[in-house]
């Protein structure tokens, strides 16, 4: 579960909710999970028992101040309630106002701030959002001033957002308490800001880059003195000691704006969201949703309200007001602006160090010397010249490389260059391949390597026919006729020198290995799979215009023993051979095991008809696993070819055999130092097996169909190290999961794969590749070895300085991938990219890409959990993010008050995206997330590209009934927050693995009829996974949109229909990542406050 603390458990993918015992819910991709026991936590939106109700000793509070109001204050507009409860840091959204909001004495009661007229602000550049609709709003929270050393922030009584004793620990684990510092749940953070545009600073060479700034009131006016002793239990802010910890005195009536009249007794505060935004009203607990009655033993939310079931107590204060979420950086707005600004023009790669459009923008690429961003994306396109500067900024220098990325139809695939027997041209010293950055000298007879500066003599480096004269600019006259001299990406045909044993490879083979144990037969999996394979084998990948695929196929079934099948074309019926000695695996036949599909069509069809019948009455429940992979690898070795194994497996391999596993699922290890063992493989046997597979070019794709724990962490080792994929279908049922499984299988079998691959990344002098992330194996420090690599997999590479870089020459990367194509052809694919270098930090921050940064940070963290406690990994992420932003604030931003949170324009979404990573199931699981689900997601994210991690961590939420039905375009997304939901609308939510259709309770009857073919909301089936095919515009549009979203993703997203206020709604709300998660993960607003506090602590 995406959470940042261990508070009330919530249902994850695959588990029912604690409150709805026995209800089967979906796991990742919509699979039902097992039933969870009921828990003792309060209902959703209600208070959680167990919060600490008394202040901790040693935490000081600031007494009321009676000093005069400071001179520099801002004023609230007429008609708007001023925010007056806090005082740590206000957010300024836009340029500083010439008139500051007035600060009132600290002893002034909450909410009783008089209002002043609006003062106009000067017009500034506004790249995002509308002009400001209100002036700055101020907030006061005692004890948060910064003066020299930072005093510990105060944890408000009973509502702590984290360990009150430490600022440094960002992810402490107090029982049922929040994670972050000292911001009360649902309250305005210690930064306030006006609604409207984000302030920017004009970009300049050595001046600060554009920035979004948020102002804190802590900077203006006199500092409040702090108390010197610990607070007594029950003592309030500046008030007398009281005997009851819950006692808070009632505030006086709230001051009203001029011109308004009070016509009745004071009531609950007004909703804070815009009146134009449909949705629920703000509830007293800070959440949005239908009002619920108070919980027993908790005070009423506002004076005069009934407190059913609770003891009468003194009146309670007005609830705090929330910071307007529209006033902080919006991912949706940034995405929309980038689409509008950069989606219409092609992205031309001829300029060095050019930052590409966001991954969420549809754009065309014109290759003019640098690789397309579809192949390589960098965290920054301007690298610091020195290692000291890089260490100071803490911005990771990394590239996410997708060597075989699929291109849209409008873009041409890389050209194939054939230099004949002489092979590709390379530098004699560093072995870099010829590219557009190589400099020809001496009339074209020699060239200087752009990576190592070596002068290569043409007589020894390239054949005489490759010689060409230079023009007046020093370029070869044939430069634009040769892909390797003019394009960023291209392929060379490799010579026999690049092949194993100096022998050209044979075409690869596919082996289908099918579990025929009791579970697989009973679920209908075996029959479904055999039926599908009959037709699927006609669609094996093929080269270019080839009439049929060169790939050969073989079949194995297994339970405790293995069955090999001879499907030679000359046979009338297939023959089965059984190998029961699984401890010493061998392949009992060579001729007839791997065959051409078209030649053996009749025998293969006969076999696929017979398999379900042969094992229909099996009672064998135990399975083996490692010997199955061993058998497939031995078969490929005997055939002297590379290939892929497709394994269909259902249970934990407990039969006596190599690789036998035991059930080690232990939830007691969560949040302990031993939690990392849950992500580590049980035995080293699988790493050894994976190493042998890589050496043979044997890639493994694993399809799992578990009904209980199967130890994904161990079973996925071989697919992970061989460049394969893992697919998981928990509690598989043919009627519910058939479409998803078959769609994934078809795509997996048909996609183009490079076999027996080796990848190396070369860099120009000054930087070098030091770390690699992804699904691959490395036997040395430079070569990435992949038994198979498809168009969905990425390899992420981190770079470090080993010398000073030159600002004029920049930095160069070259990724070279040597692989065997589906037709058995040995090829080299080359991608080149030139980056700028800078001596000013401002230039670094101006050319960063947040989406790629988050991709790298997520992979870094997900690998970190293998060796470190999860809490340590989370703290490391938060610290690094704070250091990045603090360095910008210190070195690049214009001088301003310490209370301002200033974010670089390119990184203003870093806090919201990082919070999503911190709340993800791997780093902060809910109580019901299974160990297998965490291991599955961990290995999945490891090889995701930037577009996939973007939507995985921040899902897309699309309202369906607001855009015109006749519109062919995708409806504009809204922010992933519950307050954006209107109960009169229908929404689609997708994150690349899951697809939800949320239906509001007040949706018009006509819409319900058009989509579901039922007459009312109550008749809609919750959990429905297929929409009825109806002949009306709305039904066609929604089904078309769902198909379109699925086509954009590498895995099939199963649809789940969720009704408002239904049991499944909690699962849906898990993906509303801007909100505080049900298990205590911070909301976007609260995390932004926490980051501000961390930054100020670093700066002080």
Automatic annotation (TrEMBL):
<dbReference type="GO" id="GO:0070971">
    <property type="term" value="C:endoplasmic reticulum exit site"/>
</dbReference>
<feature type="domain" description="Sec23/Sec24 beta-sandwich">
    <location>
        <begin position="754"/>
        <end position="837"/>
    </location>
</feature>
<dbReference type="InterPro" id="IPR036180">
    <property type="entry name" value="Gelsolin-like_dom_sf"/>
</dbReference>
<dbReference type="GO" id="GO:0000149">
    <property type="term" value="F:SNARE binding"/>
</dbReference>
<dbReference type="Pfam" id="PF00626">
    <property type="entry name" value="Gelsolin"/>
</dbReference>
<dbReference type="GO" id="GO:0008270">
    <property type="term" value="F:zinc ion binding"/>
</dbReference>
<dbReference type="GO" id="GO:0006886">
    <property type="term" value="P:intracellular protein transport"/>
</dbReference>
<dbReference type="InterPro" id="IPR012990">
    <property type="entry name" value="Beta-sandwich_Sec23_24"/>
</dbReference>
<dbReference type="Pfam" id="PF04815">
    <property type="entry name" value="Sec23_helical"/>
</dbReference>
<feature type="domain" description="Sec23/Sec24 trunk">
    <location>
        <begin position="505"/>
        <end position="749"/>
    </location>
</feature>
<keyword id="KW-0653">Protein transport</keyword>
<feature type="compositionally biased region" description="Polar residues">
    <location>
        <begin position="184"/>
        <end position="195"/>
    </location>
</feature>
<dbReference type="Pfam" id="PF04810">
    <property type="entry name" value="zf-Sec23_Sec24"/>
</dbReference>
<dbReference type="InterPro" id="IPR006896">
    <property type="entry name" value="Sec23/24_trunk_dom"/>
</dbReference>
<dbReference type="InterPro" id="IPR007123">
    <property type="entry name" value="Gelsolin-like_dom"/>
</dbReference>
<dbReference type="InterPro" id="IPR036174">
    <property type="entry name" value="Znf_Sec23_Sec24_sf"/>
</dbReference>
<feature type="compositionally biased region" description="Polar residues">
    <location>
        <begin position="23"/>
        <end position="37"/>
    </location>
</feature>
<feature type="domain" description="Gelsolin-like">
    <location>
        <begin position="969"/>
        <end position="1041"/>
    </location>
</feature>
<dbReference type="InterPro" id="IPR006895">
    <property type="entry name" value="Znf_Sec23_Sec24"/>
</dbReference>
<dbReference type="InterPro" id="IPR029006">
    <property type="entry name" value="ADF-H/Gelsolin-like_dom_sf"/>
</dbReference>
<keyword id="KW-0813">Transport</keyword>
<feature type="domain" description="Zinc finger Sec23/Sec24-type">
    <location>
        <begin position="424"/>
        <end position="457"/>
    </location>
</feature>
<protein>
    <submittedName>
        <fullName>Protein transport protein Sec24C</fullName>
    </submittedName>
</protein>
<dbReference type="GO" id="GO:0090110">
    <property type="term" value="P:COPII-coated vesicle cargo loading"/>
</dbReference>
<dbReference type="InterPro" id="IPR050550">
    <property type="entry name" value="SEC23_SEC24_subfamily"/>
</dbReference>
<feature type="compositionally biased region" description="Low complexity">
    <location>
        <begin position="201"/>
        <end position="213"/>
    </location>
</feature>
<dbReference type="InterPro" id="IPR036465">
    <property type="entry name" value="vWFA_dom_sf"/>
</dbReference>
<comment type="similarity">
    <text>Belongs to the SEC23/SEC24 family. SEC24 subfamily.</text>
</comment>
<feature type="region of interest" description="Disordered">
    <location>
        <begin position="178"/>
        <end position="329"/>
    </location>
</feature>
<dbReference type="GO" id="GO:0005789">
    <property type="term" value="C:endoplasmic reticulum membrane"/>
</dbReference>
<feature type="compositionally biased region" description="Low complexity">
    <location>
        <begin position="60"/>
        <end position="77"/>
    </location>
</feature>
<dbReference type="GO" id="GO:0030127">
    <property type="term" value="C:COPII vesicle coat"/>
</dbReference>
<keyword id="KW-0968">Cytoplasmic vesicle</keyword>
<dbReference type="InterPro" id="IPR006900">
    <property type="entry name" value="Sec23/24_helical_dom"/>
</dbReference>
<dbReference type="InterPro" id="IPR036175">
    <property type="entry name" value="Sec23/24_helical_dom_sf"/>
</dbReference>
<dbReference type="Pfam" id="PF04811">
    <property type="entry name" value="Sec23_trunk"/>
</dbReference>
<feature type="compositionally biased region" description="Polar residues">
    <location>
        <begin position="90"/>
        <end position="101"/>
    </location>
</feature>
<dbReference type="GO" id="GO:0005829">
    <property type="term" value="C:cytosol"/>
</dbReference>
<feature type="region of interest" description="Disordered">
    <location>
        <begin position="1"/>
        <end position="108"/>
    </location>
</feature>
<feature type="domain" description="Sec23/Sec24 helical">
    <location>
        <begin position="850"/>
        <end position="949"/>
    </location>
</feature>
<dbReference type="InterPro" id="IPR041742">
    <property type="entry name" value="Sec24-like_trunk_dom"/>
</dbReference>
<dbReference type="Pfam" id="PF08033">
    <property type="entry name" value="Sec23_BS"/>
</dbReference>
């Amino acid at each position: 579960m995406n959470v940042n603390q261990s508070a009330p458990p919530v249902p994850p993918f695959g588990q029912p909710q604690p409150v709805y015992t026995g209800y089967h819910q979906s796991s990742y991709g919509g699979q039902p999970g097992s039933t969870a026991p009921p828990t003792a936590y309060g209902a959703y939106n209600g208070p959680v028992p167990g919060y600490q109700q008394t202040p901790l000793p040693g935490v000081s509070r600031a007494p009321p101040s009676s000093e005069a109001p400071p001179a520099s204050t801002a004023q609230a507009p007429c008609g708007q309630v001023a925010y007056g409860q806090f005082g740590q840091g206000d957010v300024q959204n836009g340029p500083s106002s010439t008139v500051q909001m007035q600060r009132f004495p600290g002893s002034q009661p909450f909410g009783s701030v008089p209002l002043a007229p609006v003062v106009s602000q000067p017009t500034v550049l506004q790249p995002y959002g509308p002009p400001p609709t209100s002036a700055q709003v101020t907030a006061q929270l005692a004890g948060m001033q910064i003066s020299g050393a930072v005093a510990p922030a105060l944890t408000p009584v009973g509502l702590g957002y984290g360990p009150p004793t430490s600022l440094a620990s960002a992810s402490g684990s107090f029982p049922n308490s929040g994670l972050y510092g000292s911001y009360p749940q649902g309250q305005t953070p210690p930064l306030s800001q006006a609604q409207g545009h984000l302030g920017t600073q004009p970009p300049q060479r050595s001046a600060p880059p554009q920035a979004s700034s948020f102002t804190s009131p802590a900077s203006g006016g006199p500092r409040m003195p702090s108390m010197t002793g610990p607070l007594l239990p029950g003592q309030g802010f500046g008030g007398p000691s009281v005997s009851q910890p819950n006692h808070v005195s009632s505030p006086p009536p709230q001051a009203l704006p001029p011109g308004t009249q009070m016509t009745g007794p004071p009531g609950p505060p007004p909703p804070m969201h815009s009146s134009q935004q449909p949705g629920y009203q703000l509830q007293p607990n800070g959440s949005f949703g239908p009002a619920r009655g108070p919980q027993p033993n908790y005070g009423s939310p506002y004076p005069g309200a009934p407190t059913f079931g609770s003891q009468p107590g003194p009146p309670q204060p007005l609830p705090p007001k929330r910071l307007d979420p529209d006033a902080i950086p919006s991912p949706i707005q940034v995405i929309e602006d980038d689409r509008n600004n950069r989606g219409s023009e092609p992205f031309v790669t001829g300029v060095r160090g050019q930052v590409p459009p966001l991954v969420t923008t549809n754009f065309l690429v014109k290759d003019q010397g640098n690789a397309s961003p579809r192949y390589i994306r960098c965290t920054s396109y301007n690298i610091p010249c020195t290692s000291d500067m890089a260490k100071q900024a803490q911005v990771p220098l990394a590239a996410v490389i997708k060597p075989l990325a699929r291109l849209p139809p409008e873009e041409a695939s890389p050209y194939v260059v054939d230099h004949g027997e002489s092979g590709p041209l390379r530098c004699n010293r560093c072995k870099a391949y010829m590219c557009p950055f190589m400099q020809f000298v001496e009339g074209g007879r020699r060239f200087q390597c752009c990576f190592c500066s070596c002068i290569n003599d043409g007589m020894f480096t390239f054949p005489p026919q490759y010689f060409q004269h230079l023009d007046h600019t020093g370029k070869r006259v044939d430069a634009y006729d040769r892909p390797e001299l003019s394009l960023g990406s291209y392929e060379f045909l490799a010579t026999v020198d690049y092949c194993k044993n100096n022998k050209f490879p044979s075409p690869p083979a596919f082996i289908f290995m099918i579990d025929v144990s009791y579970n697989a037969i009973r679920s209908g999996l075996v029959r479904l799979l055999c039926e599908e394979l009959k037709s699927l084998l006609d669609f094996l990948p093929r080269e270019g215009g080839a009439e049929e695929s060169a790939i050969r196929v073989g079949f194995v079934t297994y339970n405790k023993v293995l069955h090999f099948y001879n499907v030679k074309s000359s046979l009338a019926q297939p023959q089965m051979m059984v190998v029961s000695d699984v401890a010493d695996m061998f392949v009992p036949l060579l001729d007839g095991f791997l065959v051409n599909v078209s030649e053996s069509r009749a025998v293969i069809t006969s076999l696929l008809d017979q398999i379900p019948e042969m094992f229909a009455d099996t009672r064998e429940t135990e399975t083996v696993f490692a010997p199955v992979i061993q058998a497939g690898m031995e078969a490929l070795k005997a055939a002297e070819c590379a290939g892929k194994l497709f394994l269909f497996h259902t249970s934990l391999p407990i039969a006596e055999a190599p690789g036998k596993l035991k059930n080690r699922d232990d939830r007691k290890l969560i949040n302990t130092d031993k939690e990392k063992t849950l992500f580590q493989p049980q035995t080293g046997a699988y790493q050894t097996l994976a190493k042998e597979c890589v050496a043979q070019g044997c890639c493994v794709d694993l399809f799992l169909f578990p009904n209980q724990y199967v130890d994904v962490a161990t079973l996925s080792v071989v697919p992970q190290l061989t460049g394969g994929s893992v697919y998981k279908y928990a509690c598989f049922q043919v009627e519910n999961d058939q479409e998803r499984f078959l769609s994934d299988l078809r795509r997996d079998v048909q996609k183009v794969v490079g076999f027996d691959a080796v990848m190396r990344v070369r860099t120009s002098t000054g930087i070098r590749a030091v770390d690699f992330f992804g699904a691959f194996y490395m036997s040395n420090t430079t070569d990435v070895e992949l038994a198979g690599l498809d168009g969905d997999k990425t390899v992420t590479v981190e770079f470090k300085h080993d010398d000073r870089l030159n600002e004029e020459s920049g930095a160069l990367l070259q990724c070279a991938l040597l692989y065997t194509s589906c037709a058995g052809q040995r090829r080299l694919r080359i991608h080149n990219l030139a980056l700028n270098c800078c001596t000013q930090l401002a230039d670094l921050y101006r050319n960063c890409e947040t989406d790629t940064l988050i991709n790298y940070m997520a992979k870094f963290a997900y690998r970190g959990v293998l060796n470190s406690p999860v809490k340590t990994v989370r703290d490391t992420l938060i610290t690094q993010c704070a250091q990045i932003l603090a360095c910008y604030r210190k070195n690049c931003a214009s001088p301003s008050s310490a209370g301002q949170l200033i974010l670089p324009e390119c990184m203003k979404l870093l806090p919201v995206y990082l919070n999503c990573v911190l709340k993800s199931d791997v780093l902060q699981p809910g109580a019901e997330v299974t160990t297998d689900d965490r291991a599955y997601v961990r290995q999945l994210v490891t090889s995701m590209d930037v577009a996939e991690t973007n939507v995985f961590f921040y899902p897309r939420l699309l309202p369906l009934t607001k855009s015109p039905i006749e519109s062919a375009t995708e409806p504009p997304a809204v922010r992933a927050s519950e307050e954006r939901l209107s109960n009169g609308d229908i929404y689609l939510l997708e994150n690349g693995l899951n697809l939800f259709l949320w239906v509001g309770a007040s949706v018009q009857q006509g819409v319900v009829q058009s989509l579901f073919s039922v007459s009312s909301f109550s008749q809609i089936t919750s959990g429905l996974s297929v929409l009825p095919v109806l002949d009306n515009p709305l039904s066609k549009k929604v089904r078309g949109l769902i198909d379109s979203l699925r086509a954009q993703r590498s895995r099939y997203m199963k649809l789940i229909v969720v009704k408002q206020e239904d049991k499944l709604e909690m699962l849906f709300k898990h993906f509303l990542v801007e909100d505080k998660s049900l298990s205590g993960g911070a909301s976007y607003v609260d995390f932004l406050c926490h980051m501000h506090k961390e930054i100020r602590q670093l700066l002080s």
